[in-house]
Amino acid sequence: MGLKAVLFDLDDTLYGSFGACDAYAYEQLAIWAEQELGISGEAFAQAFYENRQRLSRQQPGMPPIHDRVLFAQGALERLGCNAIRHARRAHRVYWDAVLEKMELRPGVTELLDDLRQAGVKTAVCTDMLADIQMEKLEYLGLADRIDYLVSSEEAGMDKPGAPIFWLALQKCGCLPHEAVMVGDNFRHDIQGAMDVGVAGIWLNWTGLPQPQETRAYHQADTFMQAADHIRTLL
């Protein structure tokens, strides 16, 4: 197929599981709120979560729904605390906990090295704010192995919206039929990519049932399987 670029989702794809990282982060937020602010940790964590859901309802598919500073701001204001002073610290507590729990999937570095040797461009194509995704890639040791980062913050909307995929293709200097997209979220990563003509490789690591989709895509149960398939395209 003349593969020129591989686009990767980040969370739950290059590392996993984000859900476990997120749960641990909420535990650390609760401890922080009790120790540093003298308020109920359970109440703060719940308010943080509820503000997260509120933003998702108010701005569906828009980058601010990922901003933990905004989650913390709303939670702190609801509980009568100084959000200006403490929201950024809560943001840091949350993300430090996520970073601590992240585990790179087996086979990621080897595939990225093989792609670079083959002259294939790589891009992380992710629903999130650019700053924290850059930090994750550095923490995972991938900063020098990935050619480009394309965040929904930069593109202006989340996947499956087309702008994020077109921007990734533009950065990689290739056409849709010259790229593949690897991701765990079928609607956002795979169908979104196929909507713009990019082939999809679904990393179905949680064993979800087959979705209703008539277009062809490749399914892998592990990242190693996805990597083996990509190597057949080189």
Task: Produce the secondary structure layout.
Elements: E1 5-8, H1 18-37, H2 41-58, H3 68-78, H4 83-101, H5 108-117, E2 121-126, H6 130-139, E3 148-151, H7 152-155, H8 162-172, E4 179-183, H9 186-195, E5 199-203, E6 218-220, H10 223-232
Parallel strand pairs: 1-2, 1-4, 2-3, 4-5, 5-6
Helix pairs in contact: 1-2, 1-4, 2-3, 3-4, 5-10
Features:
alpha/beta; 6 strands; 234 residues; 2 domains; elongated; 6-stranded parallel sheet; Rossmann fold; Four Helix Bundle (Hemerythrin (Met), subunit A)
CATH names the topology of the largest domain as Rossmann fold
Helical residue percent band = 40-55%
- Given as residue ranges, the uncertain stretches (5+ residues, pLDDT < 50) are none
Mean pLDDT: 97
Q: How many structural domains in the coordinates?
A: 2
Beta-strand content bin: 5-15%
The arrangement of helices and strands along the chain is EHHHHHEHEHHEHEEH
For the largest beta-sheet, the strand count, sense and barrel status come to: 6 strands, parallel
Shape: elongated
What gap, in angstroms, lies between the N and C termini? Answer: 8 Å
Please identify which CATH superfamily of the largest domain we are dealing with: HAD superfamily/HAD-like
Q: Main sheet: which strands, in order across?
A: 3-2-1-4-5-6
Alpha-beta classification: alpha/beta
Count of helix runs: 10
C-alpha Rg (nearest Å): 19 Å
Question: Quick one: how many beta strands?
Answer: 6
* Known CATH architecture of the largest domain: 3-Layer(aba) Sandwich
What's the CATH C level of the largest domain?
A: Alpha Beta
